[in-house]
Amino acid sequence: MKIAVVGSGYVGLCSAAGFASLGHDVVCVDMDKDKVDKINRGEPPMYEEGLSELLSETLKNKKICASAGMESIKSADFIFITVGTPSKPDGNLDLGYVQKASEDVGNFLKIRGYCTIVVKSTVLPGTAENSIIPTVERISGKKAGKDFGVCSNPEFFREGKALEDFFKPDRIIIGQYDDKSGDMLAKLYSSFQCPLKRTDLKTAELIKYASNAFLAMKISFINEIGNICKNLGIDVYEVAEGMGLDRRIGGRFLQAGIGFGGSCFGKDVSALLHKSQELNSRSQILEAVLSVNSKQPTRIVLLLKEKMDIRNKAIALLGLSFKEDTDDVRDAPSIAIISELLKHGCTINCYDPRAAENMRKIFPSLNYGSSALEALNSADACLILTGWKEFNNLSDKDFSVMKGKVIIEGRKILDRNKVSNYEGICW
User: How many domains does the chain have?
Assistant: First the structure.
């Protein structure tokens, strides 16, 4: 199959490389010329486990390339729209990139034959029907269902494990405009061994939002339980383990800590909440999910202040990305924590295996170390904010270079057999 992927972020590039590795001919389309050049050199513009190797392999086999426009594409069986949908200040989605992609697809279809448009960007229910299809029809002069197909195909990638989720998905959701559109996309996914559910467009769009909102809710719930556990002297991880043994609950996303971040959960819950308000169907649960998460990061600073006077102290921060195995700092809990520490005149010495350069764009004046040991040197206290596996190897010897001995985890990663004196935000 010939596939064009419009948008080369986490979802777009991982999907493109994945399809290319399966033997399809893929063109990545992106307005960012620098990003296009990097992809064609085999340099992913973001860190994602295994992506560099897979991109190099598919480039070598001439199964993938990148372009700054769709003009060079002679034909396509599928056009995947994978552009970003950032939040507006009011919590609603900014569909500017989706609108531009729809216009580009419309111009492409003016002089090309039938193909299926696949919306993989996260968009609210009704977007494909009320925005994307009318735009493509208006510009191309063609009709959906007759001259081109349309499907919604939401992604469920975990950053850091996106390729694993591409090749071994839990499920594939196909929202179809008509049977022909759905049949074509189902054929593309025919080699995948997982449940495949076909729905209409709006239902598929809402499945994505409902899924992310539920996972975010689990995180906020266990953080609330964790805050109770802290006051009772109970390890919330033991509570979560006991809960997770119930098949109805399961243990995933019950890891308490400093809250969720990244480009999906907060944005998607906010957008769904905004939609519910538009429909006069207020969601108190969604409001609570966001409220709990907004307060959770700075609880670690409050705990630190109970241990010491933090004014003008040197604080080591280990981990900056919103989770391990990614360089993404979008909405990372570390941002709120850094801001709070700076209000108290703290000197911040930080280390992250992947995310330092991205965080430097937000906080250029922090001291960015090349190792955990460098960040810990002469620090008055240490806060661990990301569960990078390498932090599990830290020992009392490593922490001995600190001036003070206050160590607090925001993600449970330290080993009790190696580190003798520390505590967690919820345990």
Answer: 2
Which structural domain, as residue segments, surrounds residue 356? Answer: 299-424
What is the rounded distance in angstroms from the CA atom of residue 231 to the CA atom of residue 365? 36
Q: What is the pLDDT of residues 53-112, one digit of tens each?
A: 999 999 999 999 999 999 989 999 999 999 999 999 999 999 999 999 999 999 999 999
Encoded tokens for 247: 């098949």
Can you give the CATH number for the domain in which 380 is found?
3.40.50.720
Entry pTM? 0.96
- Asked if residue 311 and residue 197 are part of one domain, the reply reads no
- Residues 321, 12: Cα–Cα separation, whole Å: 21
Whole-angstrom distance, CA of residue 21 vs CA of residue 348:
43
- What end-to-end distance do the CA atoms of the chain give, in Å? 52
65 catalytic per annotation: no
Q: Which of 14, 28, 229, 264 is catalytic?
A: 264
Which domain-ending residue is among 208, 227, 261? 208
The pair of three-digit structure tokens given for residue 408, joined into one six-digit string: 């607090």
Are 130 and 16 contacting, i.e. CB atoms less than 8 angstroms apart? no
End-of-domain residue from the set 182, 208, 234: 208
Core vs surface per residue 141-164: b (16+ CB within 10 A) or e = ebebeebbbbbbbbbbbebbbbbe
